[in-house]
Structures are given as C-alpha cells and as structure tokens.
Amino acid sequence: MTTQRQLVETLTCMGAVPAQWLDTVAAVDRALFIPAVFEGHGLDAAPEDRLRSVYADAPVITQVNDGKPTPDGAFRLFTSSSSMPSIMLEMLALLAVAPGHRVLEIGTGTGYNAAWLCHRVGESKVTTVEVDTAVRSAAVANLKRAGFQPTVVLGKGRDGWREGAPYDRIICTCSVRGIPRAWIEQCPDGRIVAPWGSSFFNGSFVMLTVADGVAYGSFSGDPDFMWDRTQRGGSGRIGEVCRAAEGVAGVTGIPPQNVIQDDPAFFIGLSVTDARYRWCAADDGSGEATLWFLSDDKKSWATVEYVPGVDTYAVEQYGPRFLWDEVREQFLRWHELGKPERDGFGLTVDGDGERVWLGGPRNVVRALP
User: Is 83 known to be catalytic?
Assistant: First the structure.
C-alpha cells in the first residue's frame, strides 16, 4: 500500500529534501491534510488510487471556484490545494528557516505546510493567515488531528498579522503581484519568500532579505501557485473572450514560441501585466499551433498562428488593445538588452514602491508603485 514512507523516499531520491527537513517530512503524514473528496477523486474512488495521489509529489486540488457550486461542464478554477511537496521544500530552503524563528505564513490551505513549520520551529512560533472561512476551519481540524495548534488567523494575507509581529520569516503560498508594505513592516529584519509575477508570467519565486525597512532580492524557481484572491487576473475558456469576433490581420517574423520561453516571458510580464497567454497545439499531427493572448478584462485578444517551416506567421488582434504589438515591443526590448536571463534581475522594495532591476539596483528596468 502507498504510504507516507514512499513519499519520503520519492522526495529523497529526487534530492528534494534538505537534511534539516528530513525528520519533518517523515513525521508529518500528508494524508491527514487531504479531504476524503478532492479534484479527480470522489467518494467512489478506489482507496489505492486515492493514496497514490495523496503520497505523490504532485499538487492535490482541494477546492474549485472558491467552494461555490459548480455545474457539470462549467469552468473549474482551482482555488485551494495541497501544494507539490518538492516545491514546498524548495520554498522552505529559500526561506532558510531555523528553530527559534518566528514565521508568518500567508495562505494556510490544508495546513500541511504550517504543520511542517510547527514541527521545525515549534507551534508557538508559527502564525498562518487564510482568507477563506471554510478552508481555515478545515485546516485547523487537520492541524489538530496531526498534533499541532499554531495561530490560524482568518484574514487577508496582504495585511499580514500585526498582532504576532515582528517575524523573522514570511512565506507566501499564493502568487502575488507585489510585496505588500505590511510584510516589510512586520518582518523588519529577516527574509520573505513568495511566488511573484503578473498575469503574463508568474513562474518565479522572489527571495527578499529585509533590513532597515528595505527588501532586496532575486528571482528563481518555476512555481505555479494559485493567485492571491484580491489580485486574480483573467481566467476561463478562450471562447469566453473570443466570441467569433474578427480582428485586425497582420503578420510577424517572430516565431510565436520564442516569446513564451521563461526568460523573455519574465521580462514581457513586467510590462504586459494584465494579459495571459495560452499555447494551443493542433491535434492533427501537423505540428501547427495557435498562440493566444487574452486580456484580463476579456475585451481584447490576439493570436499568432505557428506553422512549421515558414518564415512569417499570421497575426490577428481584436479589441481596444493590440496585445501582440505590446508583447512584440517588450520582446524586442529584451533583445536590445542582450537577452538577459531571469537570474540577472533583482527586486528592491522600500517606501517608494518596487523596482525591478538588471545587474544591479541602479539599473532599473521597471518601477512599480
């Protein structure tokens, strides 16, 4: 039978478990934090199939559409989960948390990550904030069943929790578009780790060192976390944005797949913050594909048609914004800068806002209020 021990062995073989976290991963049973019913597994699911999902190094979706009733065939937006264990460990390694640290977690979810923190630093040192009442209640029950009773707060994560400050570490388990000033104030001499980005690209961790009211740090990783509920962008099916409207036709010589590679997409996402992309490959074996761009407000869209072996690609743009033109402009700017890799960029957060820089803090490429 699939067990917690097998999850530990899987993570260990991957080299995903820092030595200081091995006892914690082994001691906290993930099954205690997974509900009987979760995405893809109803009450009629075979017990062994369920356990394989529980003890896999994979996320388990525990809520869709904020817990609201979802009719058959309706779009299912994933809104809470138990994160992939290896990604949790990657974040905790960046956090450099140690016994004695006071830790604030943003986004309790099932409580699994909070349980790890409790085991590592002691439950009296852990505060975790959850915005969803039902999710919080379930997490409290899960944590109690596992033998932990940290402070579990119902509130908006962006506000932190001043009553428990100051903290030595803040870890955020949902994607954010910026680092709230409240976190800097509540962790004045420590470290903050969060998934950071925009609708276009949010596949980065930012790791910030905080001192004297200023946070300074770098980008890394390949996370795919759900959004802070106060900062969600667009979602849904393509047909909800493109309703058979005809756009303005054009062509481009840029292969569309080039703009969505991690390094250029990171840079493009610094400016094109409120639009997302989706690569849709043809299912006929032709190798053709359509790259869609969809604005968060669902008023604009663009497509670039990829066909193997050609030099130009058909473009169509619709709405008040010409999304391909916006993407193309930033892609060409990235080229002008020498095609920098993501790890050459950094972030500074202070009383003047956020500044993304390249190579050093003086070379600001994007200022955010």
Answer: yes
